[in-house]
Structure to design on (592 residues):
């Protein structure tokens, strides 16, 4: 069977793991890595600045910051390359992106899978399944404890902040506390910066604590977790309890789900999909009969 | 929007709950119930012996014993009615049934969704998702404590057994004990029957205990549960922990998932599908955009 040729775009935490995931994935071949600037290359595969240098590519895993996805994904779709991204905004921005990529994907007869991480991503699929089993009720998603990439970036962007780590701490039933650890530049005023962070719309002043440290290195851990719980009803039954717990290394889980979605790209009709629109069986490296034999 | 007209075939524990689920489901209308013999009808919808008496029907929920599904489902597909069943055998029998129904569904341009309960069913989908997140590792499924319908039926079929309740008790990591409570006919010999049950291929003699009781009524509870756990690897990460816990009223969960699958029937191309082949979003009562807005 012909192997799927996959390239990784970006070489941060997720991009590096994506390279490992593709290497280990049956039926996939790493075409290479695309970066804005090519540094030293310790891979045995090419690292380039233009995807054209990699030869034919079936799927691009876009391991770039979420805010870049709306611009980067169309570039690949226009080149006839399917895309997978781990876009991590929910609701309206996600719908907007899906609609935008859907147009590019259909026009170029390619597939884009967006939000193919764990939340949004597999967690979204779990929430859908929980609603299918118990349509009445409320689902609560509790994240952490773990480092929030988005909130860390937001804190880091404040002038005077050298580096920041925003921890997401679950208070239970959908509420969270943020502990933001900051390393400051010499001239920076801690009290002022702490206030700026708490006033940033990304943070909730009531639930954000800012803590100054000399060195963030020992705090930076990529472990993360989630608990999704639903106490719902099905038919006449009023006490249906469903719960998912995950403790994961965050970039590895994200990259792995993106790699699985790359497989599904080859099996779907042109268009843009969120993970819940993809038959779960198409995420697996084996054919449908083998998957049913093993997992159903 | 036109409502989906659904009939329920069979009126046991699952059939009765299916009626309730359809009543409460947005966009669905209960066409009626089909039974082998019509008893007293307390529903405000018809109860008939032939589906033709119900007028147009889009989907039949087959709430009949698993062993009847291979024969009953084709009868409905041939009448141009989509089918959903909660067939509960795994592996080869499931593959055989899917293949059989696939032929009937394609020939009649209809959709059959098979194994649309919770295990096989939503549990199978969870196992697929867990493998997609962490392809390395082993998944353990632990059932119970709860009454196994299949094992209870097997015990009940032994001559001399008036009624039986087989409890599934999780010993952890995929192993189970069966406690089989039996109510015997007057002339029956308990020791002999206990041996017959333990020797039945459906039961494991090392892990089956048979207990005689005078009255099974207080033991019959339809609560059940499952824990699915995977400690796996994604990319370089070797400690990815994923766990699902459910505690449910069993017939209500099964019926509810079947009702959700009825919805998906209207959105799929002709053929037979297991639940893992169905985009999870199509199980929900709202359109895709609304589901993404709420759940992704």
């Amino acid at each position: 069977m012909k192997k799927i040729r996959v390239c990784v775009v970006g070489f941060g935490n997720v991009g590096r793991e994506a390279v490992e995931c593709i290497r280990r994935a049956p039926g996939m071949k790493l075409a290479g890595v695309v970066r804005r600037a090519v540094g030293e290359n310790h891979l045995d595969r090419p690292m380039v600045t233009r995807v054209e240098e990699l030869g034919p590519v079936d799927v691009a895993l876009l391991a770039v910051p979420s805010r870049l996805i709306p611009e980067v994904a169309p570039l690949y779709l226009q080149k006839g390359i399917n895309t997978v991204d781990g876009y991590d905004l929910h609701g309206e921005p996600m719908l907007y992106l899906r609609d935008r990529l859907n147009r590019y994907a259909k026009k170029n007869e390619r597939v884009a899978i967006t939000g193919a991480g764990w939340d949004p991503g597999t967690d979204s699929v779990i929430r859908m399944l929980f609603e299918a089993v118990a349509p009445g009720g409320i689902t609560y998603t509790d994240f952490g404890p773990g480092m929030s990439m988005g909130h860390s970036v937001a804190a880091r962007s404040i002038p005077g902040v050298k580096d920041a780590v925003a921890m997401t701490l679950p208070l239970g039933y959908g509420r969270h506390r943020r502990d933001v650890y900051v390393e400051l530049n010499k001239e920076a005023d801690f009290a002022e910066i702490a206030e700026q962070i708490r006033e940033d719309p990304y943070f909730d002043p009531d639930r954000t604590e800012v803590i100054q440290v000399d060195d963030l290195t020992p705090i930076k851990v990529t472990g993360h977790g989630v608990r999704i719980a639903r106490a719902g009803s099905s038919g006449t039954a009023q006490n249906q309890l469903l719960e998912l717990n995950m403790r994961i290394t965050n970039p590895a889980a994200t990259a792995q789900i993106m790699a699985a979605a790359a497989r599904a790209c080859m099996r779907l009709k042109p268009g843009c999909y969120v993970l819940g629109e993809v038959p779960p069986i198409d995420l697996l490296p084996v054919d449908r009969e083998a998957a049913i034999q093993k997992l159903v």
About this structure: The first strand of chain A starts at residue 4 and ends at 9. Chain A has a mean pLDDT of 96. Chain A is about 30% helix and 30% strand.
